[in-house]
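Page 37, continued from 36.
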């Protein structure tokens, strides 16, 4: 089994998850890791699995990752799994927090599914976790999304810890689950 992990990152959160998944895959076969910009599309036919990682930008996968997914061949040999990091709440939350996830990260998972389906690529699933935001993004969230002082005081210190040890463990489990299903 040969896998390729291809990711985009600006502040390191998505790279951290990519490296955790790489570590798990290294124990069970050959795995390469690189950024989406460095992938040579002509080499993709060597792989059984492509794992694609993105930060969430504007509620969807970051544009360089969408562009990369759009450039994938139709009906390839490889299967695809995805992961993304995002600053909004996690999707397991109810009420306002769940609504904010839908609004601010809810298109990420369907984008993976839709692109795979349109290109006849077998999609094995997707992992996501929170990732701390850069100062300008924190400022945007404070001004536009979490304007309530109490909510902000709960949200920000927690966000700044992510990806945390639980996220890392969950990413390892995700990688292991993908390996077990291949
Ligand atoms: C331009 C930009 C737009 C962003 N938009 C969103 C967003 O819509 N929803 C969200 O949850 N996080 C958003 N974020 C936060 C990032 O998704 C989050 O911090 C992510 O973990 C960054 O990953 P990285 O460190 O790999 O770059 C945005 C970040 C940037 C830089």
């Amino acid at each position: 089994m040969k896998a390729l992990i291809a990711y985009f990152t600006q502040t390191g959160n998505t790279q951290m998850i990519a490296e955790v998944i790489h570590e798990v895959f290294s124990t069970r076969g050959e795995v390469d890791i690189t950024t989406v910009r460095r992938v040579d599309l002509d080499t993709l036919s060597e792989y059984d699995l492509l794992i694609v990682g993105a930060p969430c930008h504007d509620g969807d996968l970051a544009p360089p990752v969408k562009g990369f997914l759009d450039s994938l061949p139709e009906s390839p040999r490889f299967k695809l799994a995805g992961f993304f990091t995002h600053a909004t709440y996690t999707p397991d939350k109810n009420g306002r927090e769940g609504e904010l996830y839908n609004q601010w990260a809810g298109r990420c998972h369907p984008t993976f599914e839709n692109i795979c389906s349109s290109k006849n690529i077998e999609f094995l699933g997707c992992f996501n976790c929170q990732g701390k935001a850069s100062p300008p993004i924190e400022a945007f969230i404070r001004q536009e999304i979490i304007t309530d002082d109490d909510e902000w005081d709960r949200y920000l210190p927690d966000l700044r810890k992510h990806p945390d040890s639980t996220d890392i463990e969950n990413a390892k489990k995700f990688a292991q689950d993908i390996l077990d299903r291949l």
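Residues 98 and 110 are 16 Å apart (CA to CA). Flag for discussion at group meeting. The two ends are 8 Å apart (CA to CA).
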